[in-house]
Structure formats: structure tokens, C-alpha cells
Amino acid sequence: MKKKISLIFLIAFTTQLIIACCDCHEPYKNEYKFEYLSAFNLDNSEANSVISESPIPRNAYGIKLQLGLRELSLDRNHFSLFSQANAMCCLCGADTTITPRDTITSLKITTINRFDDNHLKGSDVTELFKVLRHGNYVGIDSIIAHPDIYFKRTETEFIELYLFTPPREADEYSFKVDLAISNDTHLSAQTSAVNLK
Amino acid sequence: MNRLPLLLILLSVLQSATFAQSEYKPIRFFYRPSVGAVFPTRSFPTKDIPSNLIGTAFHNIYFQPFALGFFYRNIGIEGQVMLSPALNPQNRRDHFAKEIGLKYGNKYYTSISSGSMDDYMNDNPDPIVRGSAGPSYKIERNCLVFIGRMMVGVVSITSDWGSVRLKEKGTNELLNVRWDTQYPTKDCFSFHPSLTFAYRVSRRITFNLDLDSWFYKADITYKETTRNALSGNVTTNQYRYSHFMSDLSAAMGIMIIFK
User: Secretion signal: which residues (chain A) (predicted)?
Assistant: First the structure.
């Protein structure tokens, strides 16, 4: 009889222990879509880059992209007896997970004006720009390869693209940025004409 | 003038203590904890950027939790360990930033970081250790005890890391420079002559004044790594600091006589 009572208490205690360890909230799964794109001229001649409409040194020019995100869903996971938490160490995961519904398939920058002898009006100048990532300038392809690094948990994301092959002549320049999304849509934006001195 | 009577009284007390009939047995085996301060008398010239990351050129306190000695007649042997907190004074950080400004400030905007700018104690909680052992000689005159030592040991020197982000003025160019040593602390062989003046207040206890000096050669190599953020090119440079150093320390403590 004592053994049976001990066994019942043991089962009840173990069940309570497992339930206590697994008492985590189900994470909210949240998706967003890319809503709009804006492009601004960036002056990187000082310690920190700033959006500017004034003449910008050619060697310190950049484009700042503002990417609007729109939340799509706010769904709870289905009910489960066993939570996703780890019962052995009682660690719960993140409360909310936010992921992009679509991915960026390409980012293309074209010059509105004649840039130089090799890049006439309407030419693709994407390879002349770089993105700063973890202290290093990398190609724009990295935005496409690792979109999760750039798009996390805010409603608006910013991407800064820096020009590393400046035009030879000081003049007014403008650039068009075209973002292709995996759902066969495009977002595009154009910088205002700025004097690169 | 006011100090003269006090000095005469002190001298008379010392004289009477020195020449009075001895009432204590000679010290044979003892433990000697103390608390004091270290004063660098010769340290690194801080003439370039990484030399300001070496933690030697500042005063510090120390605690001596372990010091055991044994005498056979008047000749003995003693070992001791001193611990100091890994302090990181403001001026070291300022000098480091100033040197960077002098070298790079004209061409670049600088963004500096180092262990000295963060919470140094969290980065490097290990205390600075000095340890030594060696022969000793004592003279006992009733209540007064003089102990002289010539020990050898180690002095640990801390070396901080530092880095700067160099944003070129008027361009998009970016460089990252980092200075680092292979190990955050380095143990240096040291000569450690030492004196203790003790006054015996009971059969088991004395009050002490300790004077220690430390002579050691620090040999520290800093590696400077410069990375171009655009090309990814990395260039390295080495700064070697080989320098004779000396410190003086003074402490007060007690001696617990076991036998």
C-alpha cells in the first residue's frame, strides 16, 4: 500500500515538474511584407553620415534606402500538449518571431544622368556601391543573400549604400533604385538630383 | 620645533626597548599578512599608442594574504604573495585617446574602444599578482625586530586591448585598427629586496612596517592589426616594449608568531 501511495505521489510530482518546466507562452509568429521604398542622398563626409540635399563630396556620397514594412498576420500556434520549450532546462524561446513573407531577389541601381564614359544615362551602376556590414564594406549581393540581417523587428528598415567609384566630373547626379521582390513585384525609388562636387 | 619632544620620547622608548632584557623567545615560524600601496618609480615611457594600454604606470593598493617564514637562529626563508585589484585609471584612457588623436586625428574621425573604456573589472577580473620567495635575516632586540630579505619572484603586468575605427574625412574610406597582446597578463621575473620593522606587542603578535622594492624587466609585444574595410586587406605591425622597471611598496601589517 505504501509503495502504491509513493508511486502516485512520484507520478504527480514528476508531472508537475514537467509542466512547470514547460510553462512557456506559445510564440507569436508574425510576418511582414515590403510595402514601399524611398531613396535619399547621403553625405558621408563627416564622422556620421547624414541625409543631405546640399552639394556632397564625390568620394563621400551614398544612398540611404528607407524600406517600409507592413505587418501581415498575428497568429498563435496550434494547441499542443508539449510546448516547444526545453523541459530539461526550462528555457523559453522568443515571445515573437518576425519573418519576411517575401525575399528580395535583386537590387539594382541605375544612373539617371551620364555617370562617366563607361556608365551612360540609364546604365547599371550597382557594382559601384557597397554596403557596410560588421565593419566591412561588402557587395550589395549580400543584402539579397542574407536579408534577415537587415530586416528584423521594426516597421521601417534603412539600408545605406556607399559609392566607391565616384564620377570624374563634378555635376548633378540622380540614381534610381529598383528592388525586385520574390512575389514578382517591384519597389522603386529615385534620389533627388544632387551636386556631387 | 613642536616635533622635537615627540621625537625624543620616541627615541627613548626605542632605546629602552632595544636594550631591555628580552622577555620573548626568538621568532621561528610566522605568518605575516599586510595591506599597503605600490608606487611605480620607473615605468614605461608612454610615447606611442599601445604603450598606454600597459597597466604599470599607476599607483595601486595591495593586500598580502599569504606570507610565511621560518627562521633557524637568525637566518630564515620566506615566501609571500601580494594581490592588487586590476585598476584602470582615467588618465590611461585619456592618454590612449590623445595618442590616437595625434596620429590619426588630422585625416580621420576616430571612434575609440578598449578594455579601459568598458568595465575593466568585468573584462579582466583577475587581480594583479606579485609573488616571491627567498632567504631572510633577522635581528631581534627585545620588542624590536628587523628583518631583511633578498627574494626573487614574479610580477604580473596587465596589458589591455584597444581599437579604433578610422573614418576618413570627406570620403567613404574606413579603417579598423586593433592593438592586442597574446595574453592579458604577463609574468615577469623580479628581484625583490625587502625590509620589515616590527614591534613585538606580545609573545605571538607584532606590528609591522614593510618596505619592499621590485626590480623586473617587462617584455611585452603588441600586435597592431589594420584592416581596410573596403579591400579587406590586413596589415600588421609589432610594438615591442622591453624595459627595466622598478616599484616601491609600503605596507602595514601584523606578524603572527606560531613558534
Answer: 1-20
